Amino acid sequence: MSTGPEPQGVDPLQFWDSLAARWSRKEISELSWQVRVEAREGFSALQDPLEGLLVVLEYCPEVMKSKGGSLGHCVLFEFQLWLKERPHLHLQQREPGARLRRLQVQALSLLTEKQPSFLEPLIDIYQLGSLERSVLLGHVGYLLHRGSYREAVLMSIKLKLQPDLDMEKVCIPLVLQDKLQLAEAFVSDYQDLQNRLVRLLDSWCSPGFDPSHLLSCYPGIPQFHQKSDRLAPKVLSKQVFRLMELYGVDPALCPNVVTQRRLASLRFLMYKRFVEKNMSEENWADHVQAAVGESVDLQVELIFMLVKHSGLDCAARWALRYRVPKDRLPFGVGVRRETILENLETECPAGTGEPWEPSEESRRTYYQLPVPMENVHFLDTAEGLRLCREAVLKPGVLLGMDMEWRPAFGSVGKPRVALIQLAVRDAVYLLDLMERGGPEQDQELRHFIRDVFSDPAVTKLGYGMAGDLSSLAATWPQFLEEPLKPAGILDLLPVHKQIQKAHVPLGVRGSRSVEGLKGSAEKGLSLLVQLVLGKPLDKTEQLSNWERRPLRPSQVYYAAVDAYCLLDVHRSLTQDPGRFGLAPDLSNALGGQQGKCEEKGTHRPRTRKAQDPCTDAEEEKPQPPPALPGVSREALSPQQFRVVCDNMLQGLGRYLRCVGVDVRMLDNADDHRRAAEIAREESRVILTCGLPFQTLKSQVGEGCCLAVDCSEKARDQALRVLKHFNITITPADIFSRCQVCNGDQYLKVPRQEMERLMKIRGLISAESRSRSESESADCDAPSQPRSLPYSPKCRWAAPSGLDPDSLQFPGGAPLQLDSVPPGILDKVSLFYCCTSCGKVFWEGSHFGRVISQFQEVLNISDGQTIYQHQ
Q1: Residues annotated as region Disordered (predicted)?
Q2: What are the b/e assignments for 844-866, b being 16+ CB within 10 Å?
Q3: What pTM does this model have?
C-alpha cells in the first residue's frame, strides 16, 4: 500500500472486488476483449502496481496446482503482458532498500504459504533470486516441512539452491511418491548430487534393505501416495542403470546393481549352455569370466551353479582356476579339485587348430559361404585398409555390411563395435576395430567408414542398420559430434516385413511360405535367409566374444557369412520379386526411402493428410517412415500426429488438442499399460512421465514413447512435444479439435438460432433479452478487428444433424446450452458446437492467447496477420 501523505490511485482491495465480481459472472473466464482492456487499465490506476498485485493475489482463492483457468493465473497473465509494455516499472528500476526487500519477502511468503502455483511469474516479476540465500533456503525448508515437496523442488531449481539443500531430504520423498523425474530435475547440472542420488538408489538394492523401515521414516507422506512396489530391486536397478548412463556415473559407485546384473548374466549363460545347449564351450567360458570378474562372491555362485548344471568335475576345474577358498566350496568339490589338479591341461584343451571348413552336418543344414578362405581378408593394418578402399569404393558396387560387438553380459553402457564386415561379390573384408594402431591409422579408418556410408554410388545392403549405426556412434564419439550422412542404403529389414505381410508361397529353393514358418526357431536375418535361400544361418557364434584376439576360424567364418548372405538375398529378391510379394523395384519395399535406415522394432504411427474444412475425412494413407535418430524429421501438421497421454499428463493432452492434435487420454483409474494397448491398436505415440516410461517403452516400437518432464508446465510440455516431432501449427489448427472430448466435427450455429434455442430451453426470457440489447446499444463497445478470419481445419456437420426436439446429436450428446452466458449473445455472432460431446464454443480473445503461447511453432504464411488484443 502507498505510504505517501496523500494517497492517490485505485485501492487494490476495490480493484480486487471488481475483478472477483466479474469473475463470478463468468465474464473474465471467457476473457472478452473489453474486460481485458479494463483489467489493464486497473493496473495502471493502482498507485503502486507491484504492491497492489500482491494484495490482489493474497485474496485469490488458494490453488495448489497450476490451473491456468483460475482467477489468480488470469490476473498474473494479464499483469505480465501489461508490465512488458512498461519497462520503467520493472523492479530493477527501483532504488534498492528496505521497501524493495519488503516486497520481495511478501511475494516469497505468498508463494510458500498460500499460492505455490504462482512460482515462476512471481520469481520473475519480483526478482526473488536477489534475496539473501538464507532467506530463500528457509522458505524452501518450510515447504519441505509441510510436505509440499514438488513446490520445494521447483523453487530450489528456479533459484539454483540445490547445492545448499540436503539431497536425501528432498529426493527420498519424491521417489517414494513415484516422482523420480522431479528428483532427476533437482540434481541436474550438479555432478556431485547426481552421484549421490545414484548411490542412494543403489543402496536400496542391497540384499538387506527393508522398504518398510524407509517408509516408516516418512509418516508425513499419505499411505495412498506411497509406492512401495517401486522399491523392488528389479525396478530400482533399471532406474540405477539408466541414471548411470545418463550421468556417466562410474559403475564402481553402484556395487549392488552391478553384482545383481552379473549374477543374472551368469544364470542366463548357464541356461544357454546347459539347457538350450546352443553355446560353444569356448564362447561360454569367455563370457563367464567377464561376468564373474574379480568378485569372490560371484565366483562362489558360479561353482554352486556348475554343481547343479554340470557336476563336480566342471565345478572343480573352475574352483581351481579361481582358487576359491575350500571353506566356501560346495560339498565334494574341494576333494575333486585336488584329484584333477595334475591333469588339468589335458582335461581342458585350449581348443586350437579349429578347422575352417564346416562339418558335413552344417553343410546340409545351414547356408554356406560361397567364397574360399583365401578371399576372406582380416584387416588390421593401414596397408590392408587401403586395399579394401580400392575394392569397395567403386561406382556401382553392391556391398553387404554387418557389424559385430561383444554381448553385454553384465556390462554397463552401450556396446562398442569390434568388427565391421564388408562383402563384395568375390571377397569379404573384416575391419578390426580392436587394433586401430596409432592416431593416424585410427583417423584413416574413421574417414574410410564415413566415405563408405556417404557414397551414393555404392549400394550398401544391411539388416536393421540403425542398430549398427548406434553402436558405431558409441564406439567413436566423433560420429556423435559430426553424425554420419548415410546415402545409398538399402535396409533389408523392412523388405523382410513386406514379405511376411504378403503371405505368399515362397517356392524358391524348397523354402516354405511365411505361414508355414510360424513355428520356426529362426528369427531376424536367419529367418529371411531361410525364406529366400532355403536354409537358415548357423548362429552358434552369434554370442561370441568378438573382442578377443585372435579370432577363432569359426568366428571369422560366421562374420563373413553374415555380410555375404545379404548379397545372395538381394540377388534372389531382384531376380523374381513377384514371388515374394514385392514390387519390381526393390527400393519400393521401403516406401521410396532408399538411403535411410529403420531402427530394429520400429513402430510407426499412422498419419492422416490435412483435410479441407468443408469435406469429410479422407482415407488414411501410409506416410514415409521417420528419419534416424539425430536426423531432422520432415515437418508434420497436427492432423498427421496422433498420441495417447498417460493419466498424469491430462493438462498436456488438453493443450495438444487445443492446437489440433488427435489425443487420447487415460482416465485416472486406468493402468499405465492401457496406453501401450491403445498405441498398438491405433498407431499412436505414447506420452508419459516417471517410472512408467521404461515399461511402456518396451511394449511399443522405438521412437513411439516419449518421456515428458513432469516438473514443467503443461504449456511448456506441449511445446517440447511439438518441437520434438517437428509439428508445425497454423492459425487454422487452433481449436480445430474439441479440448473436452477430442472430437473434430462442429456444427455452426448463428447468434439468432442460438438465442432461439436458449429461449426454448428457458435459459433466457424475452424481457431480459430486450433489456440486454438496450444495454448493449448504450455501451458502444469497440469492435474486435481481425485480418485473419477464424476458420479451423475441422469437419462441419449439417444443421439437420441436430435433432430439433431433443437437441441431441446423432451420437446422443445433448447440446450444452446451459454453458452459454446470456450476455455473450450480444458479442458473438457465430457459435461452434461439438457434435461428439455437445460443448459450445465461440471466438474470443482466448484465440490470441493461444497464438502467443505457441508462437515458437506457429507457421503464418506471408500476408497473414493475427490481431493481438492489448
Answers
A1: 584-633, 768-791
A2: bbbbbbbbebbeebbeeeeeeeb
A3: 0.59
